[in-house]
């Protein structure tokens, strides 16, 4: 079994806000991230897949193919978007890094030929990241 990771980047804005709470409660919980105008990040997405090396190619999966799959299913949707407004998934889900990782997992699951999705890692800064390993 081998593991292969592709790292990509996207920029997006979001507001952390729970509609079940009032404004004061949201500000207490999410602090400046609950700002009505939102805020943005330059996110790093790492997608790790696993499987067996194809003896014909020597690859688990061609990196260009993996990059294209990630681009079509995640990056092109999220890049330069307002997650709360532009992405249906986040209409009823708070767009935390945890939930962005879940979104990416659902968007990529069963779309990568000859490899199994193993891990999604989302970093919103150099010091904070979330890893998601599926259900």
Summarize the structure in words:
- This protein is α+β, with helices and mostly antiparallel strands and 135 residues long.
- It has a single domain, classed as Tetrahydropterin Synthase, Chain A (2-Layer Sandwich).
- It is built from four helices and five strands, in the order E-H-E-H-E-H-H-E-E.
- Helix 2 crosses helix 4.
- It starts with a strand and ends with a strand.
- 21% of the residues are buried.
What are its keywords?
135 residues; alpha+beta; Tetrahydropterin Synthase, Chain A; 5-stranded mixed beta sheet; 4 helices
CATH architecture annotation name = 2-Layer Sandwich
Tally of alpha and pi helices = 4
* CATH hierarchy class name: Alpha Beta
CATH superfamily: 6-pyruvoyl tetrahydropterin synthase/QueD
- CATH topology annotation: Tetrahydropterin Synthase, Chain A
Biggest sheet: strands side by side, in what order? 3-1-2-4-5
Instruction: Tell me the structural class.
Output: alpha+beta
Unreliable stretches (pLDDT < 50, length at least 5) are: none
Largest β sheet strand count, sense and barrel closure:
5 strands, mixed
**Could you say which overall geometry the principal axes of the C-alpha atoms support?**
elongated
The chain-level mean pLDDT equals 96
Q: State the domain count.
A: 1
């Amino acid at each position: 079994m081998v593991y292969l990771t592709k790292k990509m980047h996207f920029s997006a804005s979001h507001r952390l806000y729970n509609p079940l709470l009032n404004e004061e409660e949201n500000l207490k919980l999410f602090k400046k991230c609950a700002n009505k105008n939102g805020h943005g990040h330059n996110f790093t997405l790492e997608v790790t897949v696993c499987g067996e090396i194809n003896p014909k190619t020597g690859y688990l999966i061609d990196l260009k193919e993996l990059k294209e799959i990630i681009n079509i299913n995640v990056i092109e949707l999220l890049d330069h978007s307002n997650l709360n407004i532009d992405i249906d998934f986040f209409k009823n889900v708070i767009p935390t890094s945890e939930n962005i990782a879940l979104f990416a997992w659902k968007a990529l699951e069963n779309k990568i030929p000859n490899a199994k999705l193993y891990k999604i890692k989302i970093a919103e800064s150099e010091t904070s990241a979330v890893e998601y390993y599926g259900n």
